[in-house]
Structure formats: C-alpha cells, structure tokens
Amino acid sequence: MKRMKKQSENIRSQMSDAQRLSELRIVLMGYRAAGKSSTGNSILGREEFDLKASAQCVRRHGEVADRHITVIEAPGWWMNEPVEESPELLKQEIVLSVSLCPPGAHAVLLIIRVDIGFKETERKALQGHLDLLGERVWNHTIVLFTCGDSLLDTSIEKHIESEGEDLQWLLDKCGNRYHVLNNQNRSDDTQIKELLEKIEETVTQNNGCHFEIDRKILQETDGRKKMKEQIDKLREDIRSLTMSGDDGSDSCSLGSSAYGSFRSRSGSDSIFGSSRSRDSSHTSYVSGAIKKHNSMDLIPPNCEWILIYFVLFLFFYFEIFQYTLVSF
C-alpha cells in the first residue's frame, strides 16, 4: 500500500499548472446501485442525474474548479451477472458511452461501493463488462469507492488489504489508481478537487492522451444495434398483421415488402458478385408462392405464416452475411 501512495505522490509532484486541463471528460461505470448517479451529482455539485436506473446513457455538463466537465453515466449491470447474461442493449450502451464525449474520455471511473464485499463473482462480472471496451480502457480507469463514510476510522489501504486478492487484482489492473468519495458530504469540495487532480494524473500517465475506443468495436456494436432495430420493426409489422384480419392480403404485402428490403440491401455486385441468377430464382419462388396464394387460394390459412417466415429468413440471412463481409 505504501508503494501505491508513493506512486501517486510522484506523479502529482511532476505536474505543473501548465498541465492542468481546462476540460475534463469523464465516464461513470459500475454495477447497479453502486452510486454512479450520486457520484455524477457530487462531481457537478448539483442534482443533474436521476437516481432511478436508466437503460440508456445520460450526459451532463458543468463548470467545476475552473474546468468544463462532461460526465457520461453508463447504465449498470447486475452485480453478480456475467456479461454473457446481460441484455444486448446494456452492452451496446456501455460501448457507446465512451463515444458520447468526443474525441474521447480522459478517464473511466469504475464505481464500487466500499461497504459491500468484492469477491470473485463481482470481479468477473466487472471485468467482463469493462472488457467490452477493449484492453486499452484499463490504462484510463480509476477505481472510485463510494460510501466512504462507512469506513469510519479505517483507512482505504487497510480496507483493500482486508478484501483480498480480487480487489487487489482490480487495482493492479487499473495501475493502482483509486479514490474514495463520501457522497453524503456534498459540502466537502476537497474530495472532488482531489478526484479531478487524479484524473489529470491519469492523463499524464497516458502521455496526455485520452481513451479512444477501437473503431472496429464501435462499428460492430452499431451494426448489431441497427440489426436489432430492423428485427423489432418487422416484429411490429407482424404484430400489426395479426390484428388486421385473416384475408391474407396484408400478409402478402408484408412478405413482398420484407423481401424487397432484403433484396435492395443485398443485391449489390460488390458484395455478392454474380449472384443475380440466385437472386432471380428467389424472386421467382417468392412471387410464385404469393400468386398462388392470391389467385388460386391453394395455401391453407395457417401457411401464410410459413411464407412470411421464409421471406424474413432470407432477409436476415443476407443481412448477417453482408454485415460479416463488411466487418472483415
């Protein structure tokens, strides 16, 4: 623990007034109920963040200690929940959070409650969610302990020692950068000023650079988000169809619309080469099935859903294939 204190003191002694930043961009991350919103309010000195959980990122601005501060709060995960079990929307928001303060965040504050034990399950969940941002994010991360008043007369160093190897692993991963915050004592400006100084120390450690997420990670996340929006829209179309009647006319219209959408997005020679003959055969098959349904009424009522799902299958198959090619 003495080594951790010494490292922080050495960095602070190297900083001059010329290295103070007039602008700081901060991203708050952590599990649910860790104190992210309260931390954002403490940093800005006013009630800017709603204490209720949000499914999307929240961005706020303010002037603090002669600096323009931008704070992004990312939605939190359940404390013991592995990243594999987290909703896709949550993971997308975590990735997109660091892009909401261009050109990049000066620091990611990893919020942990000091009054709750930090063991292997919490460590694995935290590691998995932060790894969504890539390995480089750890170079810009500071562990921020909230509920500092619960320590009473115990120093944070003694608390870290008592918690064991999982918390020590986390601190080592973050370059032993940490800070303690008492969110209940808003009148103490010292703790916020010291936090901002530690963020500037982190920038100094990174040679004056901010965190910039890998462009490929952003592209993949944006692609999955757009695909989900398309799926949701088609589901809504199908839901509307079930409420419009059983005459079959709307179902054929939907099938034609969905197929037209997938063809327009996937028929490019640059992606599929000489696939026009295959595209033409799909067109003949689908249009033939629709004509039979309309004119000869040979398809039983329940089979109209087979036609719809077949068209949707073609649509998503080529969507995924196209996205895979673009990613590479």
How would you sum up the major sheet?
6 strands, mixed
pLDDT averaged over residues: 78
Write the CATH fold name of the largest domain.
Rossmann fold
Number of beta-strand segments: 6
Count of DSSP helices? Answer: 12
How much of the sequence is in beta strands? 5-15%
Spatial sequence of strands, sheet with the most strands: 2-3-1-4-5-6
Strand and helix order: HEHEEHEHEHHEHHHHHH
**Helices and strands: which structural class?**
alpha/beta
Fourth CATH level, the homologous superfamily of the largest domain: P-loop containing nucleotide triphosphate hydrolases
What is the alpha-carbon Rg in Å? 26 Å
Helix content: 40-55%
Give your account of this protein's structure.
- InterPro entries: G_AIG1 (IPR006703), GIMA/IAN/Toc (IPR045058), P-loop_NTPase (IPR027417).
- Keywords: Coiled coil, GTP-binding, Membrane, Nucleotide-binding, Transmembrane, Transmembrane helix.
- It comes from Cyprinus carpio.
- Residues 261-275 have a biased composition (Low complexity).
- Residues 21-220 form the AIG1-type G domain.
- By secondary structure, this protein is α/β, with parallel strands linked by helices.
- It has two domains: 2-212, P-loop containing nucleotide triphosphate hydrolases (Rossmann fold, 3-Layer(aba) Sandwich); 216-327, no CATH class.
- The chain is 52% helix and 12% strand.
- The chain has twelve helices and six strands.
- The chain has a six-stranded mixed beta sheet, covered by helices on one side.
- Strand 2 and strand 3 form a beta hairpin.
- Helix 3 packs antiparallel against helix 8, helix 8 (215-242) packs antiparallel against helix 9 and helix 9 (249-266) packs antiparallel against helix 11 (276-296).
- The radius of gyration is 26 Å and the shape is globular.
